[in-house]
Amino acid sequence: MKTKHFLMAILLSVFSLTAQAAGSPMNESFTNLIALSNEAIEVGNAGDAEAFVDSVKTVLTAIGEQNDQGSSIRLQRADARMKKALKAGKAGKLPEGIAAMKEAIVQMEAERK
């Protein structure tokens, strides 16, 4: 009987942790990521491709950290746009990289559906 209660308590704990992890993106904030993205755009507008690449890498690192908290479709879409920006920046195509960063911001600011 005690074993049955113990197993039930463990199962309830596991389910509550899963529910919390699944629900965490609902409250996600992109404020920091948007600020970092805007900084990367400013650096790109200055014309320094290497600094732009470094800035985009910083944003991608921050996205990875936020993704550890809980992923969402908006975060995944923004991540894809930023990777596109990184690739463009490495190729020296700053206008394309800046455009991709702006698209990433649009994804992060999109209303949750």
UniProtKB/TrEMBL annotation:
Residues 1-21 form the signal peptide. Gene3D superfamilies: IL-4 antagonist (De novo design) like domain. It comes from the Bacteria. This is Uncharacterized protein. Keywords: Signal.
